[in-house]
Amino acid sequence: MKYPTLQLTNKQELEIKKFNQNKKIRLVTLNCINCKSLSYKELYANDRHGINQQTVMCNTCGLVYSNPRMSKESLNYFYSSNLYREVYETSNDFEYDFSKRIKQVEKNIRINKPNFNKYYPQLFFDFIFSLNIDYKTVCEIGAGYGTNLLFFKNIGKEVFGLEPSKTSTKIATDNQINVKQGFINELDNKYDMIMLKHVLEHLYDPLKDLEKIRSHANKYLFIEVPGNIKRIASIQNAHNFYFTENTLHKIVTKAGFGIISTNHCKETEFIFALYEKSKERNINFEYSYLNEVKKIKKIYRYDNIRYAITSMLKSAGLYRFLLPFRKVILKILNF
Question: For residue 271, what are the β-bridge partners?
Fold first, then answer.
């Protein structure tokens, strides 16, 4: 099945064609990291940009993941390639954008009851604050410009971030936010809470990385990921895994974290979850594998019906006209 692609520039299309034909890109197959099964159903043959990378569903437990996927060496090549810059980076003025974000954080630091009906940048912070947990230090892995850490800094917490990008790290440090260049392997201190905000789905070996994180977490782990709730999260080759609440909890608890609280945003389907470090290294989280597989198959079927309807409306020139009524139409169709 072909996944619907975004509208790309001519330059992006050229870069993707070159990338798909590049013999340096090596794909490797893997067992399901959740249940070790080799049996899977192919969902899509490409991502939203047209990159040839297959997305599958485990026939045993329902985990959705990329398989085969790029090898570690190919991933490194991809992230340093011109394609990555063309597709995932923009020509925005990062310094200007960041200065605006700082002002927004300082202006909007008033803490509210989390509203999971609509996504807003402070939702993760409101969610954590509502749980009344006791912590003093926060470390974010994949901290970007440090914007998320500002919320905690502004209420008196000690913050630290690790960020792979040199550019993002420099912008953060220039604005007096304690972010250093690096990633999970560079963790060398302990923190009351460690955050992974839209990071876990990118990891090559989540279980191994979570076990490393556990050794540096005093108390808590916060995770925010795109979720498969009523639709499968947007397919992109930078994502290795696509989680439901069940598959997320299964992997995180296996690494030695117990579930404190979880929720998801109805608008974006992002999953928010707070875990507590357990004395046990392997907590057994149970869910019905059979029901999970049925759920993903149902979501997949509905997604493809939506894509087909959208394609027909675009071909008929009606899509823009009906776009304001999209939510009402999908509700009527029970999608």
Answer: 225, 264
Q: What is the pLDDT of residue 87?
A: 79
Residue type, 240: N
CA distance 2 to 12: 19
Do 155 and 227 belong to one domain?
Answer: yes
The token duo for 231 is 């639709």
pLDDT for the residue 91: 43
Q: Which H helix or E strand runs over 302?
A: helix 289-315
Q: What percent of the chain has pLDDT over 90?
A: 65
User: Sorting pLDDT into bands at 50, 70 and 90, what band is 77?
Assistant: confident
Examine the domain organization and report whether 132 and 184 are in the same domain. yes
d(CA 121, CA 126): 10
Over residues 87-96, the mean pLDDT reads 53
Q: Are residues 139 and 273 in the same domain?
A: yes
Does 99 fall in a domain? no
Cα(271)–Cα(195) distance, rounded to whole angstroms?
13
Residue with tokens 């080759």: 237
Domain count, the chain: 3
What local confidence, expressed as pLDDT, does residue 116 receive?
A: 97
Domain range enclosing 50: 10-88
Q: How far apart are CA 65 and CA 43, in angstroms?
A: 10
Alpha-carbon torsion (50, 53, 59, 60), positive or negative: negative
- What letter does residue 250 receive in the DSSP assignment? H
Residues, the chain, total? 335
On whether both 204 and 312 belong to a single domain, the answer is: no
CATH code of the domain covering residue 165: 3.40.50.150
- The residue among 56, 88, 120 that closes a domain is 88
